[in-house]
Amino acid sequence: MTQPAIETHHLSRDYQLGSHIVHALKDVSIKVAKGEFVAVIGPSGSGKTTLMNLLGCLDSPTAGRYICDGIDTSHMDRDDLAKVRNQHIGFVFQSFNLLPRMTALENVEMPLIYASISADERHRRAMDALAKVGLEDRVSHLPTQLSGGQQQRVAIARALVNDPAILFADEPTGALDTKTSYEIMQLFQKLNDQGRTIIIVTHEAEIAAYAKRILTFRDGVIESDVAQNVKSKEQSA
Amino acid sequence: MNIMDSIIVALQALRANLLRSILTMLGIIIGVAAVVAMIAIGRGAETSITSFIQGLGSNVISVSPGSSRFGGVSGGAGSRPTLTLADAQAIRDEVNHVDVVAASSQTMAQLIAGPMNWRSTVTGGSSGIFEAREWELAAGRLFSEADQRGATKVAVIGMTVAENLFPGQNPVGKMMRVNRVPFRIVGVFAEKGSTAFGSDQDDVVYIPLSTAKQRLLGHGRLSGNRVGTITIKVSDAEWMDYVENETRYLLRLRHKLADGEEDDFIIRNLAQILKTSAETTRVLTLFLSAVAGVSLLVGGIGIMNIMLVSVTERTREIGLRMAVGARSRDILNQFLIEALALSLLGGAIGIVLGALISTTVAGLAGWPSVIPLQAVILAFSFAAFIGIFFGLFPAQRASRLDPIEALRHE
């Protein structure tokens, strides 16, 4: 078996809040194999966002080790972490975070700029990524000319464009209506079927139901870790 | 991330907020335009003064009669005709380092040639006057020693006189009347142009001094041996002060002035005067450029201000760029290039604007339009420096943002 996509050993993250220390994440050890589709759920303050930031290499742990796609990130500096984010991780955010004055294509190309990829290659890969999310006919639209669901698809294309090992989605349907949410989740399922490792953070059971495995957090520790039967595509369609 | 992409990203950001970018550049545009215009106008004025000095003849000292004074009432310069041909001769004989000494007397006269007429200054000059005042011929000849001796009625005229009396014709050999006395024109001077102060140096008529005395000056204050001006050409610029002092000493002696008595003549070391005025112009230019430099500085602060606002406004964008893999350096570069682009573009527009302003001013003033390369380079590099200097702080602030905080920023 190949190495896991994600592997943490006794990961902890403390925050200094005024005079006392908040233990946002306590001694978390998890392993996510390649090709898994994991939903991280839990109430606010449970540590799921903290975990997401750590796994997404946006933050560094107070203690413990984190191996992302086979790379030990424990002692990396900001720039090394940026490189890991660029090469191995794709992000999808609740609020899309598209740059408003750039076209869909330009938005999708952006991560490739930081990978120093030539303009021609960027264009080709961005077109591919947009095709994967079904937006090949919207490439030169500005975000404001797109619906919420289409904007999130652009954001997903942007996350995919560097062919990352892991796709992180933080409340990806939080800003979408129910029907569009299901469409987006089906897109995630499709990408997962194609072998992409996906981790989403959500507080909606409906959304978590699309994942194959559910990690429940409470007070900075894993409360439960269960595999589940995937909500079928027909059911939601 | 390579530098071309950095530049493209920065330009995209500037284009995205076009109005603000232009307004931000305005400070730099005005600053650079002011610096370039000030230096160029100052340089133009200086050049024109220099050419005026050359027009007057280099290394020239002129002596003119002083003012009369009766019981404390001054008659003004020239009111007491104290200089004589003998004074000129004495200077020639007794002062060292003198190349040429020429005497001359001027009067205004009405010139008539056929149907045309014109009023101009007529100068009666002794031999050597052309050399002392550095006149060159465009056509014909100068008058000679023989003309001086014979007091012949010949004249050499300036271009302006020629154009007004003989439009479209060659005046050499033609006749004109000067206050009703007929003169034959034997030569035309090469053009000197106008002075820094706008007077036309080509509006002149030269005749032999002897002729002027006989025919034009009559019984006035410049009759007999008295002359209006003695022009001294010094052999080398370094002897100017020496010759000036020797001449003063000699003339005081000849005019029998007691110690403590005022000079009854005025010595003008023209080059000195004009050097001083060129110096004044230069200081003024420097001063105005410094003021313009302050406006550049203010422009720079404007850039910093807008860049800081921009960093705050685009915190989420910065967070996103970091999340997808931008390193601190990439963010730093982006904002630095934005600031630099603003200042350089502003600088370029400012240079063009400054050149336009100085050309217009030079055109109005009749100066040569000189836009010194060094002013352009100076203004441009100062603008670049300002872009980097004032862009660095906001750019560093952007590059040090925490991606998580930045993404959460509303």
Description of the molecule:
The complex is a heterodimer of chains A (237) and B (410). Chain A is of the alpha/beta class and 237 residues long. In chain A, 34% of the residues lie in helices and 27% in strands. Chain A has one domain (36-45, 77-236): Rossmann fold. Chain A has helices at residues 48-55, 78-88, 104-113, 119-132, 148-160, 178-193, 205-208, 233-236, and strands spanning 6-17, 20-28, 31-32, 37-41, 63-68, 71-72, 89-92, 166-170, 197-201, 213-218, 221-227. Chain A has a six-stranded mixed β-sheet, sandwiched between helices. In chain A, 46% of the residues are buried. The longest helix of chain B is centred in the C-terminal third of the chain and has 44 residues, at 270-313. Chain B is an alpha+beta fold. The two termini of chain B are 27 Å apart. Chain B contains 13 helices and twelve strands. In chain B, α2 (18-56) runs antiparallel to α12 (373-399). Helices cover 55% and strands 18% of the residues of chain B. Chain B has helices at residues 3-16, 18-56, 85-94, 129-132, 145-150, 159-165, 209-216, 240-254, 270-313, 315-323, 328-365, 373-399, 403-408, and strands at 60-65, 69-70, 73-74, 98-113, 116-125, 137-140, 154-157, 175-178, 181-189, 204-208, 229-234, 265-269. Chain B has two domains: 3-52 and 276-408, no CATH class; 81-263, no CATH class. In chain B, a hairpin with a 2-residue loop joins β4 and β5 (116-125). The model of chain B has no long low-confidence stretch (mean pLDDT 84). The chains are: A alpha/beta (237), B alpha+beta (410). The interface between A and B is medium-sized, with 26 and 23 residues.
